[in-house]
Structures are given as C-alpha cells and as structure tokens.
Amino acid sequence: MSFKFNFDIDADGEDVETVGVEITPSIPVEETSSGSSRIPAQLHSLDELIAKLPPHIAFSPLSIPLTSSKTITIPRRELFDVKMQLMAEDNNPSTNSSQSFSAAFTDEDIRTNTYEGGLKSWECSSDLVKQLATDSEVWINSSHRILELGCGTALPSCYILQTLLSIPGGDRPVHLTLADYNIDVLRLVTLPNLILAYLYATNSLPSTDPSVTEGAEETPEIELTQNIISSFLSTLQSHNITISFLSGSWSPAMISLIHGGLEYPSTTEETMYSLLLASETIYSPSSIPEFVDMIEYTLSNNNGKGYIAAKDIYFGVGGSVKDFVDMIEQKRWKWEVVREEKRGVGVSRVVGVVCKS
Predict the structure, then answer these.
(1) What sign does the CA torsion over 78, 81, 87, 93 have?
(2) 210 burial class (0-12, 13-18, 19+ CB within 10 angstroms)?
(3) CATH number of the structural domain spanning residue 68
(4) Which long-range contacts (CB under 8 A, 24 or more apart) does 335-341 make?
(5) 56-65 and 71-77 beta bridge pairing
(6) Could you report the per-residue pLDDT of 103-158, keeping only the tens digit for each?
(7) pLDDT tens sequence across 4-13
(8) 0.70 exceeded by the pTM?
C-alpha cells in the first residue's frame, strides 16, 4: 500500500519538494505477523557509509524560526541532488547498492514495508529541533547516548551535532545512533546532512545565509574531499563523539543490535539511551506497538527521555497521538506535551516527552 501526504516543511515559504520512490529490496526480508515482508535490521558503521558518499553534494540552508529574533539554520542536501545521484547509479551497472531506488519517482510519500518517507524533511522534525533548542541545557549536560528513530534527513540529530561541535569537547563520550528503515536513505541524506552540520558548525561551508542564497543562480555545492572527511572524523574524535547507523524494521532484532547482541528482551543500563528522538513516526496504527517497544527497550529507566514530535491525527492513514499515548501509559510511561504548533485550521502538531513513571 502507498500513501501521499499533503504536509511537509514549509519554513519561510519554502516547500520541500514532494517525491515518492520505488524500492526493490535485494537483501533478505522478514515477514510480519500479517504475512507482509519487511527489511530486517542491520547495523552500519560510519566508515561503511562514508565509503558510499558521492564526490559532491548540493545543499541549501533550512531556516527554522525559534523566536521573533532567533533563527536556527541547518544545511541539508538538496533533493534534486539525490535524484541526480540515483539516476547516475541506475545508469552505472557497477553501482553496488543494498537496495535499488528507481529513478522513476512518483508522488508517493510512503510505500508500506518498502519506503518510509526518509528522503523528505517533515515539518514535525522542525518542531523537534525547536524543542531541543529550548531544552539544550538539559540534554547537553545529561545525554551521552542519543538515538533517533526514523531519522530520514535527521534534522534533530544534525542540530544536536552542530550544538555539540560548537562547544569545547568534554571527557564524557557521546554516542549518536541514527536509525532509518532504508539503508539508502542513510547514505543519501542522513550522513551527508551530518557532514554538512559539521561543516556549518566549523564555519567551513560556502554562505548559508538565506538572504544571500535565495534567488542565487547556482545552488551551493561542496566537494567531499579526503581532507574534509578526515577533518570530520578527527573533529568527532576530539569531541569524544561516535556515530553509528541502523537500517531495517523496528523489531527484536534491532533491539538486540542496539544492546550489542543481547537477546531480546534482555537489556542492560549501559547500552540504554538517555535521549530518544522521533518525528512523524506514529502515522500508521500498525507500527505504533513496535515503536512503543523500541522506546521501552532502548530508553533508560534512569532519567531517560524521549522527545516525540507528531501530528495529533494522520487523516487517511489512521495513526494518532492519542493511540500512541494510550499504549505508552499502558506500559507505565509518562507523556507530557511540551510544545504545540498549529496554523489556521490545520491539524495541530505536538512535541511530547516520554519518561518512565
């Protein structure tokens, strides 16, 4: 089944381009209880995804207004640049990708058990960035293991990385894990955006001032030289930051990977996460129980917090904040709304915090 949503980021009048993709999995799939197939969970190292980077990436700044006088800027890879790379790979028989993204893009935003919308930046991810900025003093001092589920373009994680790199590196290690259903989303947008975040934090990008780039004849582009990659890695090391990636479905297998191979549902506090991030992950009623399991078995019982951004209800698909909260509370977790966003008569959006009761 495929879906077309009519909402995405609209910051300062900028609409994110709508794109759908077709994916033909070439890796083994697992079956759900209903008999449908899903991509199994896999762990990926930073080095593995770096080896899959393109030589150049085109980017543009996304401006997220925090207050009337303060704006957060996050550079992100342009969607047309992703399309160009995919078309080049389709024309190159030697390209080795775990999944083949069709160059024939459609208007589908979601294709169940195939593609979960990760190439687009959804508006709730901007809401989550705003809340992370508001609560920065809290998570900077307390979060040493951070997990973003359904990361896609990873705007929240990019903001966190920009923030951590803008302050002196400490002795306390920080581990950042980014999970998306599709490995190709991780290599095409997640990692490139993290590198852009590093370059922005270190003032190494061409101008990202929207007043300068808006209306420019050419989109800014950066060459991913070996020097840039080496500097990226050394900067992470100097700030005591490590990054890993997960692809595939939310499942006992993914939980086991997160916990270093311990069999589900065994957990250890040392491998639990102190901060969990997710946006637009509860649109499907069928996946909410799995998402709740991911929270229960990955978020620390000792002061761990999950920041969840979502629309109140997803018309045409069926998911809702109410359904999610009902399941969370059945597990004896608390839910507190910390941010509400609404434009005109549109659907309300919220950011809530989940923690153990």
Answers:
(1) negative
(2) middle
(3) 3.40.50.150
(4) 338/131, 338/135, 339/127, 339/130, 339/131, 339/134, 341/127
(5) antiparallel
(6) 335 556 666 656 666 788 888 999 999 999 999 988 998 888 999 999 999 999 99
(7) 444 455 443 3
(8) yes
Q: Which residue, among 131, 99, 137, 103, has the nearest Cα to 23 in the 3D structure? A: 99
Q: What is the pLDDT of residue 81?
A: 95
Residue with tokens 């890796």: 27
Token pair, residue 337, equals: 């709304």
Tokens 């549109």 sit at which residue? Answer: 346
Domain enclosing residue 109, as ranges:
2-356
Q: Does residue 76 sit in helix, strand or coil?
A: strand
Pairing status of strand 241-247 against strand 174-180: parallel
Residues 6 or more apart in contact with residue 132 via CB below 8 angstroms:
139, 156, 159, 160, 277, 307
Looking at the DSSP assignment, which residues form a beta bridge with residue 107? none
Task: Return the residue matching tokens 């697992």.
Answer: 30
CA-based angle 108:72:224, to the nearest 5?
70
Write down the pLDDT at residue 38.
78
Q: How many domains does the chain have?
A: 1
Going by the DSSP 8-state scheme, the letter that residue 253 receives in this structure is H
Low-confidence stretches of the chain (pLDDT beneath 50): 1-7, 10-29, 32-35, 98-100, 103-104
Question: What would the DSSP string read from start to end of 312-344?
Answer: SB-TTT--BHHHHHHHHHHTTEEEEEEEEE--T
